[in-house]
Write a structure and sequence with these properties.
Strand content: 5-15%
Largest sheet: 3 strands, mixed
Distance between the termini: 39 Å
Strand order of the largest sheet: 3-5-4
Radius of gyration: 21 Å
Order of helices and strands: HHHEEEEEHHHEEHHHHH
Structural class: mainly alpha
């Protein structure tokens, strides 16, 4: 089974020799300042439609770089069965699929994409997988990813757009898409964000008639893994699973 590819593409530099008229250094600096200011203003005013379109482009890239399980595959069939009837939740249309990779991880994006790694499905029972799905949807509905995307657009003055989609929403240049995915998806969430997403997952479980205790047992399994294995990606970007399990049991008791 393959390892998860996060598509943090290396940018290839292209050298070029250009004959240009000399420009005063202070003029260049002013131009850079004005350009950066414009970039920040544009990112701050990005529309919801643009945000969803950018997430859609990121999802396309992720699916292209990782093996997606079909319904003929045991992982794809199991995930389809355990998410039957879960086409949408809390106003978000969902596209839930599995990646045939060994990592114990999952993610969701603002366009409704939810991806579960086969390695995680190997460790968790059906309701525990459902809790992970609810947690990742929580990050979307609480706009944690959306805020990261806007922040990345503001901070990366070199980020460009190329071409125009049919909806007239500009697209991120392919050469820069991997770096944007890395900035948006793989930075560690704050403790507050994780706690709020845990609470969201508990509500998600209750609303759909799933066993809330599975959220705590999923954390128990991660806690046991963390004591013996240091390479679980999910543990690199999430707080202590033992503390999360204890807190969630208090919430559902």
């Amino acid at each position: 089974m393959k390892a998860f590819r996060n598509t943090a593409a290396a940018l290839a530099g292209v050298g070029a020799m250009l004959a240009v008229a000399a420009v005063p250094a202070n003029s260049q600096s002013l131009g850079g300042i004005l350009g950066s200011a414009k970039k920040v203003a544009e990112a701050a005013s990005v529309s919801d439609e643009e945000i969803v379109a950018y997430f859609g482009q990121m999802s396309e890239k992720m699916d292209a770089d990782n093996p997606v399980a079909t319904l003929d595959d045991p992982y794809g069939a199991r995930l389809a069965a355990l998410t039957q009837g879960l086409d949408s939740y809390d106003g978000l249309d969902l596209d839930i699929k599995a990646y045939l990779v060994k990592d114990v991880n999952a993610f969701a994006m603002g366009d409704g994409t939810v991806r579960i790694m086969a390695g995680l499905m190997d460790e968790f029972n059906d309701d525990e997988v459902r809790c992970v799905i609810g947690h990742e949807i929580g990050h979307v509905k609480l706009e944690h990813g959306q805020k990261r995307l806007k922040r990345a657009l503001q901070q990366d003055a070199a980020l460009s757009v190329a071409g125009t989609a049919s909806s007239d929403v500009k697209r991120i240049a392919e050469s820069e898409l991997g770096g944007l995915i890395q900035d948006v998806m793989y930075a560690q969430h704050s403790q507050k964000a994780e706690t709020r997403s845990d609470d969201y997952a508990l509500k998600f479980m209750a609303d759909n008639g799933y066993d809330q205790e599975a959220c705590a047992t999923a954390m128990d399994k991660l806690a046991a893994k963390s004591a013996s294995v240091g390479g679980i990606e999910l543990l690199k970007t999430h707080p202590s699973p033992a503390k999360r399990a204890k807190r969630m049991r208090k919430k559902i008791s």
